Amino acid sequence: MSAGPIGVFDSGVGGLTVLRALRARMPAADYVYLGDTARLPYGTKSPDTVRRYALAAAEALRSRDVCALVVACNTASGVALEALAERWPDVPVVGVVEPGAAAVCRRSPGGSIAVIGTESTIRGGAYQEAIARLRPEARVRVRACSVFVALAEEGWFDTPAAEAVARAYLGDWLQGDDPPDSLVLGCTHFPVLADLIRRIAGDDLVLVDSASTTADVLAQVLAGSPAPASGRGSLKFLATDGADRFARVGSRFLGQSIDPADVELVDL
């Protein structure tokens, strides 16, 4: 394996929450992040279309000599990992679904698990299948919450509109007679709404975000590779449309300012 940068891609800026966790876990590594902003959201597309988009995004990152691929998109992780691994068998490919499922199976006190995600992620059943393998006795409820993506993209994390949507989606679960004990944020856009969900649910709900778990998995996968130099690694941003919007919205997800001039537009 080469000692190149780690490649990370998502349909847009939500995967920057994963990049943020990766940098916290492996700060000296170099990263190239690709947001396929021209074709988002992936969550409403067919599985064949998502696989095609994911392969194109990964091809662009491989052309930058990345040493590993992180699929920082729950939708693409659910349907495209096998295709990516087949295309590049010499490159580690890590998605966010399996780490997220493993984390909730470990942390759920009673096995009453809820999963929220995009329409495609929920319909594809990747979380349900992964949880069933790891904790067969678990009771799993799922729901598509696609409007959350738009709220996150607009930066409406803590507004009356966001709270109204959250209560419409989740009120019957979180405030009903049989609430789940744990909730998987099955979309990389959703962590920015975690505080709002927590306020509605109360402190007893276990909220699981797969970003930090994904970072731990990749660190284990790369444990035998040459270690990068100490210090802070480099960051490169690629987008397929809208460098200004990528920088403005992405800054909220990454937790640091992104200069539009540092976002390179690419054509897939």
Please tag this protein with its features.
single chain, 268 residues, Rossmann fold, six-stranded parallel beta sheet, 45% helix
Structure description:
The chain has 268 residues and is α/β, with parallel strands linked by helices. It has 2 domains: 6-95 and 212-265, Rossmann fold; 98-210, Rossmann fold (3-Layer(aba) Sandwich), CATH 3.40.50.1860. It has 11 helices and 10 strands. It has helices at 16-25, 47-62, 74-87, 97-107, 119-124, 126-134, 147-154, 160-174, 194-201, 210-221, 243-254, and strands at 6-10, 31-35, 68-71, 93-95, 112-117, 139-144, 182-186, 206-208, 235-239, 263-265. A 6-stranded parallel sheet has the order 4-3-1-2-9-10, sandwiched between helices. Helix 1 crosses helix 10 (210-221), helix 4 (97-107) packs across helix 10 (210-221) and helix 8 (160-174) packs across helix 9 (194-201). It is globular, with a radius of gyration of 18 Å. It starts with 5 loop residues before the first strand and ends with a strand.
Present the secondary structure layout.
Elements: E1 6-10, H1 16-25, E2 31-35, H2 47-62, E3 68-71, H3 74-87, E4 93-95, H4 97-107, E5 112-117, H5 119-124, H6 126-134, E6 139-144, H7 147-154, H8 160-174, E7 182-186, H9 194-201, E8 206-208, H10 210-221, E9 235-239, H11 243-254, E10 263-265
Parallel strand pairs: 1-2, 1-3, 2-9, 3-4, 5-6, 5-7, 7-8, 9-10
